Amino acid sequence: MKTSVIISFYQNIEYLKLVLAGFERQTERDFEIIIADDGSDSSVINQIEELSRVVSFPVLHIWQEDKGFRKNKILNRAIESSNSDYLIFVDGDCVPHSKFVEEHLKSSKKKICLTGRRVNLSQKFTGKLSVEKVTNGFLDKNILSMIIDGLFGKSNYVEKGFYVKSNFLRKFFNKKKRGLLGCNFSLFKEDLLSINGFDERYEAPSIGEDSDVQFRLELNGVKTKSLNNIAVQYHLYHKLQPRLQKNLDLFNKSKSEQTAFTKFGIKG
């Protein structure tokens, strides 16, 4: 496999169907999907098994018992289970543009972590989607509808949905340094293993799956490169999850220690 695509997932099987439909459209086909499942129930597990039999790419389902938010722990298990030297991370509510895998691989380089961006679709726009529509390229082809939806204050960051081919414009849109986005980044497995993967002490959303990883990677000499308007995603609507102070406190502690290799990662 050229790459392993690791999808962090919990319970929302209807959104996962849309995400997998997006991967059916990829122009680069040499990848495996690893579903990193943070404790979905048995009915969802059965549906994932059914989906795995009908999609056109290999799917590996990694599951752990539901003991609260333990995304980083299941991501570390997925890393260990991957069959590729290159890893792409997405969330189970983010549908990829058809060029998504291709663009991550084209820019891949050791000691570089790539990070793209996403459109945040409104509840109304998300409700229009179906597996058939995604498979037929509805999202890639309807940027104008997203713009209109955005003008009425529904979808946001719609400008992130423009897929740009021009090298000049790609450089222009990526002059600014951007932070790592946990739902849209990629790097060589050895670079992530060099910091011992994700810090499993983070047991709430945000910071632990992106800001903390970027900080420790950069301490270890891995630079972050932006793929804004190149590696495009469409984020399906859900209510925002709050950022908890305990995550920020832990991150501040990690920054003060200036240690790239966490003792609370893959090798505990």
Quick tags:
12 helices; alpha/beta; single chain; Spore Coat Polysaccharide Biosynthesis Protein SpsA, Chain A
Outline of this structure?
The protein is of the alpha/beta class. The protein has twelve helices and ten strands.
**Judging from the principal axes of the Cα atoms, what is the shape?**
globular
Number of domains: 1
CATH topology: Spore Coat Polysaccharide Biosynthesis Protein SpsA, Chain A
Helix count equals 12
User: Quick one: CATH class?
Assistant: Alpha Beta
Main sheet characteristics: 7 strands, mixed
Tell me about this structure.
Helices cover 37% and strands 18% of the residues. The protein has helices at residues 13-24, 42-54, 71-81, 100-106, 123-127, 131-135, 138-141, 143-151, 167-173, 189-193, 211-219, 245-257, and strands at 3-9, 31-37, 59-63, 86-91, 94-96, 112-115, 117-120, 184-188, 223-226, 232-235. Strands 3-2-1-4-8-6-9 form a seven-stranded mixed β-sheet, with helices on both faces. The protein has a three-stranded mixed β-sheet with strand order 5-10-7. The radius of gyration is 18 Å and the shape is globular. The chain has a single domain (3-257), classed as Spore Coat Polysaccharide Biosynthesis Protein SpsA, Chain A. The chain is α/β, with parallel strands linked by helices. Helix 2 links the parallel strand 2 (31-37) and strand 3 (59-63). The longest helix is centred in the first third of the chain and has 13 residues, at 42-54. The protein has twelve helices and ten strands. The mean pLDDT is 96.
Task: Please give the structural blueprint.
Elements: E1 3-9, H1 13-24, E2 31-37, H2 42-54, E3 59-63, H3 71-81, E4 86-91, E5 94-96, H4 100-106, E6 112-115, E7 117-120, H5 123-127, H6 131-135, H7 138-141, H8 143-151, H9 167-173, E8 184-188, H10 189-193, H11 211-219, E9 223-226, E10 232-235, H12 245-257
